[in-house]
Amino acid sequence: MNADAQTLLEVRGLRTVFHALDGAWPAVDGVDLSVSRGEVLGLVGESGSGKSVTGFSLVQLIDPPGEIIQGSVAFKGEDLRAATPERLRALRGDRIAMIFQDPLMTLNPVLSVGEQMAEAILEHRAMPRAEALKLAAQALARVGIPSPEARLKQFPHEFSGGMRQRVAIATALLNEPDLIIADEPTTALDVTIQSQILYEVQKLARETGTAVIWITHDLAVVAELADRIAVMYAGRIVETGPVDLVLDAPRHPYTQGLLGSSATLVAPGGRLNQIEGMAPRIDSRPSGCPFRPRCPRSLPVCAEIDPPPTFDGARQFRCHNPAQPMVTTP
């Protein structure tokens, strides 16, 4: 983590709902999180936990029937919820970059890769187009794309799915943003390329102070990449803290369950422990603690009262009956 620990992004009470005929249902339900300059925060959880909606909410990219109805998103002290569309356009792609899980959301099929990457630079900086194309080629090389100058002339359909994702990642790195929000960007990549991109992201954070929110379901990636981890379940952050502390000695039963069911984090020959049941739908979450129906440690109070945050040194968790720390062996 960068020595400058100044808070870059601070989110408080973020609540994003999706409107339906029978009500407004929260996909993100009172999320608090922060990230400092040069820090990598891993946001983890099962599919449907609200991770991606959180990422889209941070950059104000929620479209109807979704709506951010509550909370603050302060970027360098500026509340993004109060920002004008013009101000948000100036920030996105320059000071804040988002890498989408689907690269087709990023790339225009009728423009060459070079045109798109150069435009991402020229929109925010005054320089000759030739210089912008040179920077684009360097960015492609950083993410492992061979013959980058030739590739700039090609169109997205001439790239494989994994190569398109690398182009999207390279585009996000172009302007050395203050904050990158990455939504499972390495899912379609092989292990070698994934490791290269994780190295480049860590290097960017270390050398330029760029902060990263890395959204993923892969705890092994978070263990390698992140400084801190935030575990999300049913739209809420249930445990957060330094990555080594949380992964080595988790307190929330859900965090323990994720670790016990991860093949890469269980000792060789060890038994995987599946979390029983499924995450609740946003329109049918139980009262009290949302993890209660799946939790082996639930108490009667869990059905009545949503557990408040408990602070344990550098760690925070929400549980009435927290698990005793268990040591995991990678």
TrEMBL record:
GO function term, MF aspect, one: ATP hydrolysis activity
Subcellular location: Cell inner membrane
Keyword Cell inner membrane: yes
Topology versus the membrane: Peripheral membrane protein
Domain ABC transporter: 9-259
Pfam families registered for this protein in UniProt: ABC_tran (PF00005), oligo_HPY (PF08352)
Name the record gives this protein: Methionine ABC transporter ATP-binding protein
Organism from which the protein derives: Bosea thiooxidans
